[in-house]
Amino acid sequence: MKHVTRLAASAALAAGLALSAQAAAEVKIGVIASTTGPGASLGIPYRNVYTNLPPQIAGQPAKFVILDDGSDPSTTVKNARKLVDEEKVDILLGPTFTPGCLAVSDVAVEAKIAMICLAPVVVPPAKMPWVYSIPQSVPVMIAGVVEHMKANGGKTIGYIGFADGWGDLVLKALEATAGPAGIKIVASERYNRPDTSVNAQVLKLIAAKPDAILVGGSGTPATTPHIALKERGFAGTIYHTHGVIGADFIRIGGKSVEGTIAPTGPLMVAEQLPDSNPIKKVALDFFAKLSPAYPQVRNAFSGYSYDAFLLVQGAVTAVGTKAKPGTPAYRQALRDALEATKEVVGTHAVYNMSASDHNGVDQRARVLVRVEGGQWKLLK
Predict the structure, then answer these.
(1) β-bridge mates for residue 57, sequence order
(2) What is the pTM of this model?
(3) Are 26 and 60 in contact (CB under 8 A)?
(4) What structural domains does the chain harbor?
(5) What is d(CA 276, CA 142) in angstroms, rounded to the nearest whole number?
(6) How many CB atoms lie within 10 A of CB 59?
(7) Share of the chain above pLDDT 70, in %
(8) Cis geometry, peptide bond prior to residue 95 (ω within 30 degrees of 0)
């Protein structure tokens, strides 16, 4: 009997040690951020958040492996494969621009690893199980722009956006919401992210005499058509997307972007939110936690990166010791846990995922802001 007892005790001890070792296994998070190139004004805030987070998630050791793609989709794919094949990461965060997200989605599906895009993205149903997106969906945000324009008597609008997947998403959302609101799109132009001049497109827009213009850009390249419109005397309202919310847009645009109206997540005006809003506390805590090491933390892209971290934290907690980091089973478990996300409060939104919705935000994730005196102010 004593021999049996000793065997049972030894087995229990071994099992306990195995569980302890598994619990302490390092979770590796692969991050692809455009810290150079045209998308650097977005990618740098993402990187700065992840380099200033503690090296643990839900009590487990964690490591962020961060690679720069230079804002080039082909490099983005190479980085994704390196993170998956060489670094053996458990989950991918990024890229930070829509074309890159679309390119990496193939890698995610092939490797059966969840990716949380740090830019809005829409993928075919076959890819959707592995692809998540943090930023508010484009339709949710553009609906706010159209509602504001309608409330202020606007009847016609012009559009100029990137000649890529992001520009496509914004235009599609505008086309879906403008008509039902009684607003006519009278001109539509496109430009490339690296372009330094859009004079020809701007002249066509002005000739159409719209009441307002929506710029479907992101980061500092979104200032190019805005500045050109102002230089040529356009006096109507210029709207932007949530892809411009940050200090760099105002720094580069200067006085030209005064009066800009754009949708954004609540974090940009957190202090002005009512105390009953659950996002307010999370956003203010986020600023307080990171601002000592990263004084420029108050920008939309930093918030997106932190919200992605909160989702990963929730998934890691849910998986617990059911699978071991570094294994296919752990990747699958993280994917499943992400899809089961319920009422996770972030700096931008309250996230609720499902098999048919891998963005998980609603209208609580949107407010309108205006550039006033070189600052983003809540539009009331």
Answers:
(1) 60
(2) 0.81
(3) yes
(4) 7-136+283-365 (3.40.50.2300), 138-264 (3.40.50.2300)
(5) 26
(6) 11
(7) 94
(8) yes
